[in-house]
Amino acid sequence: MKILVINSGSSSIKYQMFDMNGELVLTSGIVERIGLEVGNISHKTFINGEEKKVVKEFPIPNHKVGLSEVVNLLTDAEIGVIQNPDEVSAVGHRVVHGGEYFNETTLITPEVEAKIEEVIPLAPLHNPANLEGIKVCTEIFSSAKQVAVFDTAFHQTMPAHAYRYAIPEELYKEHHVRSYGMHGTSHKYVSAKTLEYLNLPKEGSKIITVHLGNGCSMSAVKDGKCIDTSMGFSPLAGLMMGTRSGDIDPAVIFFLEEKLNMKTDEIYNLLNKKSGMLGLTGFSDMRDVEDKINAGDAQTRMARDLYTYRIKKYIGSYIAALNGVDAIVFTAGVGENDTAVREEVIEGLDFCGIKLNKEENSLRKPGIREIQAEDSNVKVLIVPTNEELEIARQAQDLIK
What we know:
The chain is built from 15 helices and 14 strands. The protein is of the alpha/beta class. The protein has an eight-stranded mixed beta sheet, with helices on both faces. A hairpin with a 4-residue loop joins β1 and β2 (13-19). The chain is globular.
């Protein structure tokens, strides 16, 4: 069974194709700069252990043109992995927001598309692009099942006291203002992998997953289900991130508006794209941050302290929410690769019996790794995330 996974953005399309017999990646790529004067496609195939790469530049006015070229590459006589689009059994779509309508992977129908469109106000930057990818793929891969995998679905198991805000009831009932969370596909994948790796039964398990990339979020996972997560109504809440502020006193927004005469869109842009690590240091890439710290820059040192302190605070609150913890799991680009961040997060948690093996933490090895000290009462793991594979698995399970 061949499954194509699509992550459709406003001006880009990321994709991977899997042969689910062995869960092999056959091809992956990205279509970029859609709608601009010149777009590009970077496409890789993996055949018999050999990687081949193709890069093309040409005008890509819309998603249909971009995906049509992807099909040409997938069926190319020399580097193709299928002979025609009908060989694709399913297309798994990453959909950022499903509101309260979807708590599991869903076969896409016109009614489902309508619900995705209905919750666009909850994810105005993402859902329109996700929906566009669905519409184009439905036309191009007409024989395939179209499957929606929602970023918010894993968090729909949160109890009301975790997802509700202390604001007037009608704002929730009439306008669905509540915490939804994001990165659910990643949190689900790594928490399940952790249970499997540690041979822990779901029942009674307590895991904290720490997804650190340019976007950052954490989840408290009990009995294999999410009971709390750091992102909220939007991806802006929670941890400090590459360009997002994370948690902030709402009165700051009123101050910016009233005292500095900033408009709503300016404040939105400031908090989402000009804040976080970028706002404090001028850099959003943690490798640049590390270089500045090593050069003795005090401001950058403070910024990373703020970054790791926020994570540590959430760990403490989630230990309380879970009434203990079996494992703390780091994942995503920063979580998997930044040794200093992991060390600073775990430092000072020994009162909870959480201790790090600094030597093991400093090593770079592939796959799942344990990095806790021998006398640690809690496992500390690095679990590489694979959201595309998780989407493919969920699509396969659904159509089966």
